[in-house]
Design brief:
2 domains, D-amino Acid Aminotransferase, Chain A, domain 1, five-stranded antiparallel β-sheet, Phosphorylase Kinase, domain 1, ATP binding, 6 helices, 15 strands, alpha+beta, purine biosynthesis, about 30% helix
């Protein structure tokens, strides 16, 4: 496998072509951003940790019958993935009020929701990733109705598995973001699953073990990412 042309560089990853048109190489970065890029910094070893955590979780989800873009982890910071046509809809699944949900609905952070909330955001840095609904998705032709039904079903299945898995490791899965794409006519789970894209709290102390430590200047950011890998990677 040869690393080829740089296709895309985002806030947390670089994506390269390979000599196989069906696969891309994803390189995870230590760069960190928050508030739609208004806050920037570096988290030591974040790229390596997010690569390992995402690889482990994708492999576990594959065993549960959830198709992902993972092919294999090929180095500490690099993952070989199936080439996806990314659907520009970010899917956020919420079990407990935090972040923007708490602000929008006037809920105290940490309030459990009576029913899991699934939200969609238009993936657009220029517009600040606005909240959208099924009608917006159809109006902009971002994805078909059957695709969105499959995406919602998969997102809830991911939530069911991850909540159980994290609970066994003394973690609360507060909420998380997923991205999906098309590959040879199939919808696959893509991007990453990591402390960058999930809110993880310790079950007893409610200590935040995710990117919120960077967003809110709480300190101990690197240690939080390492703690997640310790709980997930050694079990």
């Amino acid at each position: 496998m040869q690393k080829g042309e740089l296709l895309y560089e985002g806030k947390a990853k670089k994506v390269y072509r390979t000599d196989d048109p069906d696969t891309y190489l994803v390189e995870f970065k230590d760069d960190a951003t928050a508030f739609n890029g208004q806050k920037k910094g570096t988290i030591r070893d974040k790229g390596e940790l997010n690569n390992k955590i995402s690889t482990r979780l994708f492999r576990l989800l594959e065993k549960e019958g959830i198709a992902t873009h993972l092919v294999e982890q090929i180095s500490d910071r690099e993952m070989l993935v199936k080439a996806l046509e990314i659907i520009p809809v970010e899917v956020v699944v919420r079990n407990i009020a935090a972040g923007s949900l708490a602000k929008r609905l006037g809920l105290a952070e940490g309030t459990p929701v009576a029913r899991t909330v699934v939200e969609y955001y238009y993936k657009s840095d220029e517009l600040g990733d606005p909240l959208i609904n099924d009608d917006h998705i159809a109006a902009m032709n971002l994805a078909g109705a059957s695709e969105m039904a499959a995406i919602r079903k998969t997102a809830l299945a991911v939530n069911d598995f991850l909540r159980r898995y994290m609970d066994e490791r003394n973690l609360i899965l507060v909420d998380f973001k997923l991205e999906f794409g098309r590959h040879k006519g199939r919808i696959l789970l893509g991007d990453e699953i990591s402390p960058d894209t999930c809110r993880f709290w310790d079950k007893q102390s409610r200590e935040k073990l995710d990117k919120d430590r960077f967003r809110r200047d709480l300190g101990g950011v690197e240690e939080a990412y390492q703690e997640i890998w310790k709980r997930l990677g050694e079990n």
